[in-house]
Amino acid sequence: MTPDKELRIIRDFYDAAESDAIYRRLLQEQNWPDNCYSVAGREFTLPRLQTWHADPGIVYSYSNNLLKTRPWTPLLSDIRQKIEQFLNFSFNSVLVNLYRNGDDYVGWHADNEAELGPQPFIASLTLGATRQFAFRHKKTAESGSILLTSGMLLIMQPDFQHHWLHSIPVDQKLTQGRINLTFRRVIAPK
Ligand SMILES: O=C(O)CCC(=O)C(=O)O
Ligand SMILES: [Mn+2]
After folding, report:
1. C-beta of residue 55 within 8 angstroms of C-beta of residue 109
2. Which of 41, 91, 130, 141 lies 20 to 30 Å from 15 when distance is taken between CA atoms?
């Protein structure tokens, strides 16, 4: 079994020139925060830089514990609109990850926090360096990976979060940076 039906790839959602321009703009414009956080009095360092942007009133505990919610920038809004039109689905938030080089990574997890509801649907855009996207089945431990290249849009169907964990492993030879945008729909608190 592979997550064939649970992952969909649109290879050149942005072409090479557009992807490069967006990557450079984000790198400059994002006003990246420090990656040292304090949670419950304990300090830790996130192995990448992150910003979190959401519509007014949207609260997401994972990111919210770590990160201040920021408004949408014009560039992030444009990207959101293009993805929404393509998918005919609306997102109210985006988590932006900067992997400064191959030492930065994200560990095994599923994006299945309660705030994403029972059917978390996520669109993930890669800009910059190619990285491996690894997945591992929660029950069978079956595993695999795909390469995410600049301009590629990865659609994660809800069942992907139900059945698999994913990660971006360290790639020690890699000196270039990568930015990933995961568009999410957080269920607004009642
Ligand atoms: O960088 C990626 O492609 C994945 C990031 C990710 O899994 C996340 O932010 O939840
Ligand atoms: Mn994830």
Report:
1. no
2. 91
Q: pLDDT tens for residues 44-55?
A: 899 999 999 999
What is the pLDDT at residue 37? Answer: 83
Ligand nearest to the CA of 133: 1
Ligand 1 pocket test: pick from 168, 170, 186 the residue with the most ligand atoms within 8 Å of its Cβ.
168
d(CA 15, CA 147): 17
Distance CA 123, CA 155 (A): 5
Question: Which residues have CB under 6 Å of ligand 1?
Answer: 95, 97, 106, 111, 124, 133, 148, 166, 168, 180, 182
Angle between helices 16-29 and 74-87 (to 10 degrees): 140
Helix (H) or strand (E) holding 109: strand 106-109
Nearest to 93 by CA among 50, 59, 49, 48: 59
134 to 88, 96, 116, 142, 143: CA distances (angstroms): 27, 19, 22, 11, 7
Report the residue count for the chain.
Answer: 190
What pLDDT was estimated at residue 173?
A: 96
The secondary structure of residue 53, as a DSSP letter, is E
Query: What would the pLDDT profile of 152-176 be if each residue is shown by its tens digit?
Result: 999 999 999 999 999 999 999 999 9
**What CATH topology corresponds to 7-184?**
Jelly Rolls (2.60.120)
